[in-house]
Amino acid sequence: MQAAGEVLTVKRAGAYRHLTLVAPGVAERFRPGAVVALRIGGARSDRLLRRTFAIYRARPTGAYGGTVEVLFAVDGPGTDWLAKASPGTAVDVVGPLGRPYALPKEPVACTLVGEGHRSASLFGLAERLRERGCGVHMVLGAPTESMLFGVLDARRAAKTVVVATEDGSVGIQGRVSDVLPDLLARTGTDVVYASGSSDMLHAVAQAAELQGAWSQTAVDVPMPCGTGVCLSCVLPVVGEDGVTRMARACTEGPVFRGDRVRWGDLESVPPDTWGAGSGAAR
Amino acid sequence: MSDVDLTTSVAGLVLPNPVMTASGCAGIGKELDQFFDVTELGAVVTRSVTLDPRAGWSGPRMVETPSGMLSGTGLQNPGLQGFLATELPWLAQRQARAIVSVAGNTLGEYAELARRVGDSPGVSAVEVNLSCPNADFGDREVACDPYLTGKVLSVVRRDVPRGIPVLAKLSADAPSIVDVAAAAVKAGADGLVMLNTLAATVLDPETLRPALGCGTGGLSGPAVHPVAVRCVWEVHQAMPDVPIVGVGGVRTGFDALQLLAAGASAVQVGSAIFSDPSAPLRVVGELRAELARRDLPTIADVIGRAHHPEGDLS
Fold first, then answer.
1. Which of A158, B77, B206, B209 has the most other CB atoms within 10 Å of its CB?
2. In the 8-state DSSP scheme, what is residue B46?
3. pLDDT tier at B311 (50, 70, 90 boundaries)?
4. Would you say residue A278 has pLDDT above 70?
5. A contacts of B71 (beta carbons < 8 Å)
6. Of B77, B197, B222, the CB nearest to A46
7. What is the number of CB-based contacts under 8 A between chain A and chain B?
8. Residue B308: CB partners within 8 Å, gap ≥ 6?
9. Whole-angstrom Cα distance, residue A42 to residue B26?
C-alpha cells in the first residue's frame, strides 16, 4: 500500500541512522523481511527513484498511530536527505513490499546472521521464531565495533549470540562466515536466516548447505520502484524447474532461498538464463 | 468541476480519459492494481513483448539523473507465448483497455507479433516499439530512419486486424521526427506515440566507465518533458489530422495538459510511476482540475489549442 508518512525521529545508531516514520496502515501488514520504499525529497522532488529499506520494527498502534522503523547508512544523496529530515517531514511510503522470511512449521533450531545495519530485519524475525518454539541463535558481524548493529537486541532475542569484527575491536576477530560452520554444527541448526552483503550471503548459503540446513537470504540491492515495474533490481535465481531467471528482488525477493541464488553470477546475466542472448533494445 | 468531460479518442479508440501508462513503466498493469483500479485509466500499455523470452541486460539497469533517470533493461519479458498465456489474460479478465507494445529484431518477428497479438482477445490497440536494432537492416535503429520505420509499420499494419489501431512509438533521436512520423503514417500507422526515451550515457564517478550495464541507455523523466512537447508540437503542426499520444516526463495534470495543447489526443505516464505508483490516476484527477480551472469543458477543447492564435489559456 501507499501511505502519506512523516518523519517521527531520526537518531544516530553507531555508524548508522535509525529512522522512525509514522506510516498508517503499513505496520499492520508487516512481516519480517519485508521492505518499505521511500520517496526522497518530498512530493515534487526531482529525485525520481525510491530508496528501499528492510523494516526493523513495525508498531501498528502507538501515541502517533502506526510506525515503521528502518536502519540505514548515509551513502548517497537519498540517505543524506533522510538523515537530515526533521520531525514532521512528509515522506511517501510504499510498503510493506516483497517476499518475507519463510517461517518453519516445526519448532526447529535457527541461526540468524546479520552484517552491519542489515541485521535490522532479523529482530522481528527472532520474535516470530521464538513464538513458534524455535531455538534462536544469532551472529552479528561488521568491520569494526561502531558498525555493528543490534547487539543488545540480540542478547534479548537469542539463546546464543556471537559477535565478529574484522578488526577484532569486539568479539571474535574475523567475518561471520569464519564462525558460522562451527556454530551451525554446535547448535544443530536446521534453518539459517541471513541479511547482509551478497558476499556474506553467498558464504552463509554455502555454510548452510554443508550443514544440511535450509537458508533464507535477504538481499539488499537498489530497488528504484519497489513495486516490480522497473525491472532494475533483478538477479539470477534458479527456479523450481531448474531454470535460471532474472528475478526481481522487490517482488520475488528480497528473501530468497540461499541455494537458489547464483551468487557467483550477480554482476551478469548468466548465458544459460531463460531468454539470455536474444536481441536488445531499450 | 464535475462538468468536465475527459472522454477522448485515438485513431477510433474511444477512451474514458486520455491518461495511459507508458510501456515499460507499469509492467502489465497488474503490479499497479494494488494502488488503484487500472480500469479507471484511459488504457494500460504493456511493457514490450518480443517473440522470444528475453532475460534483459546485466546491471546496473537504472541510474538517477538530474530530474530524470537513465535506464537500460533490455526489454526483459517472458516472450510472446508466455505473455499471451500468463499476462494478457489478466488484463482481459479485468476488462482494462490493453494496448500491447511489440518489439522485433526482424521484419518477420514484427509480422508474427502483429498477427498473434492482433488475434488475441482483449487487445484494444498495438503499439510498435521502434527503438530496436533491426537485423534485416544491419542492426540500424528503426526509429531513427523513415525508410525502416515505414517498412516495419507496413508489415505490422498488414497483419493486425482492421479495427485494431496500430500506433508507432517514435524517437527524438531521429534527425527529423516529422519525416519519420510521415513515413509511419504513409505505411499505415493509425496514430503516433511520442516519445520513446532519449539515447543517453552517464559515467560512474569511481570507474569513469558507463554507469549502466548496457553502456548507453534511455533518458526519461521530467528532464525530457519539454522535448516531448516540442516533438508533439512539430508533428501536429505538420500533420494536424494524425492522432498523437504524448509521452515523456508527465507527472502532473499540467504536464499532461501541455502535451494535449501541443496536439496530442492522449498522454502516457511513465517513469513518474517509479516515484509514485498512483501517478497515472492522480494525473487524471489533476487534468480534470486543470480543464475546470480554464473553463474548458471537454478534451476536444484542449487538443492542439497551443496552435490557435487566439488561444487564451490564462
1. B77
2. P
3. low
4. no
5. 230, 232, 282
6. B222
7. 143
8. none
9. 22
Say yes or no: A93 contacts chain B, CB-CB below 8 A: no
E-assigned strand segments in chain A:
2-13, 16-22, 35-38, 51-59, 67-72, 90-97, 109-115, 135-142, 160-165, 172-173, 191-195, 214-218, 234-238, 244-248, 255-257
Measured distance CA(A244)–CA(A235) in Å, rounded: 10
What's the rounded Cα separation, in Å, for the pair A116 and B152? 53
Q: Which amino acid is at A120?
A: A
* % chain A with pLDDT above 90: 94
Report how far residue B256's alpha carbon sits from residue B254's, in angstroms, rounded to the nearest whole number: 5
Active site residue B132: yes
pTM reported for the whole predicted model? 0.94
In whole angstroms, what is the distance from residue A279 CA to residue B2 CA? 48
Looking at chain B, how many residues does it have? 314
Name the one residue in this structure whose C-alpha cell is 556474506.
Answer: A200
Place of cell 544523496: A77
| pLDDT tens readout for residues A75-134 | 999 999 999 999 999 999 999 999 999 999 999 999 999 999 999 999 999 999 999 999
CB A114 within 8 A of CB A139: yes
State the Cα angle at A25 between A21 and A30, rounded to 5°.
Answer: 80
